[in-house]
Amino acid sequence: MHKSETEKIDSILDEHQQIYRRHNRIDNILAFFACIA
């Protein structure tokens, strides 16, 4: 029971990490273009 709960939490955290990284990349690209413009 506890193991599956921890695995569930781990997968949720992994998803958030991926989303955060994707947003970070987009923000960096936008900042890059803002500097050029």
How are the SSEs placed, and which strands pair?
Elements: H1 2-36
Summarize the structure.
By secondary structure, the chain is mainly alpha-helical.
Q: What would you say this structure looks like, in words?
A:
This protein has 37 residues and is mainly alpha-helical. 95% of the residues lie in helices and 0% in strands. The chain is built from one helix and no strands. The chain has one helix at 2-36. The longest helix has 35 residues, at 2-36.
Question: Which key phrases capture this entry?
Answer:
37 residues; mainly alpha; 1 helix; rod-shaped; Conjugative transfer protein
Strand count, sense and closure of the main sheet? none
The helix-strand sequence is H
Helix fraction, binned, reads over 70%
Instruction: Note poorly predicted spans.
Output: none
Sheet-strand content, in percent, reads under 5%
Distance between the termini: 54 Å
Number of helices: 1
Keywords: Plasmid
Protein name: Conjugative transfer protein
